[in-house]
Write a structure and sequence with these properties.
alpha+beta, 2 domains, 3 strands, 56% helix, COMMD4/6/7/8, COMM, COMM domain-containing protein 6, NF-kappaB binding
Length: 183
């Protein structure tokens, strides 16, 4: 069962590297999870997804910063203390074999996954009541971002913030503007 798990886990790590290289659109967590459960290992989709996210983040960070395998393993140990030894060995092996293949054209990669900012709108509202509280009357800010994804499709992403959150958000924008003026 252990060898079966290691094989499937290394498959997952390889898929993550392919994904970072834009060879595949994403990692099929559900399918891997089913196969791991079939092999007799107890793991749920949520945990596997969490591990996939951490490994993906580590691989892309390691590629960007040219980390050696040892540095990657140390960072991994700090990030996931409960990772079984055989899983660490798999990551070490996959990184040794394929880590160098991750292309580090950072701008291109970020643009293709994150999308492009088009516009921002915000409005002030007052919450009158909620399920948990009869009358709130607290002010909040709704922010709507227009984002164009790589295919050119424009989507709106909205979120609400309390006034202190919005002030903090706004302060960060001002800091960014101040930094940009020095460039």
């Amino acid at each position: 069962a252990l060898r079966m798990f290691s094989n499937l886990f290394s498959l997952q790590c390889e898929q993550i590297i392919q994904h970072l290289n834009h060879k595949i659109p994403g990692v099929n967590i559900a399918e891997l999870c089913q196969r791991i459960q079939t092999s007799g290992s107890e793991i749920n989709v949520g945990d596997l997804a969490k591990v996939a996210n951490i490994v993906s983040f580590l691989f892309s960070t390691a590629a960007r910063n040219n980390l050696s395998t040892e540095e990657l393993i140390t960072t991994l140990g700090n990030a996931v203390s409960a990772l079984p030894k055989h899983a660490v060995q798999v990551i070490r092996h996959v990184w040794n074999e394929q880590g160098k293949s991750i292309s580090v054209s950072e701008d291109a990669r970020n643009m293709s996954t994150v999308g492009q900012f088009v516009d921002i709108k915000w409005k002030l509202g007052v919450a009158m009541s909620s399920d948990t509280c009869r009358s709130l009357k607290y002010p909040y800010v709704t922010v709507t971002l227009k984002v164009a994804d790589p295919s050119g499709q424009i989507t709106d992403k909205s979120f609400e913030m309390t006034i202190p959150q919005f002030k903090n958000f706004f302060r960060q924008f001002k800091e960014m503007a101040a930094v940009l003026e020095t460039v």
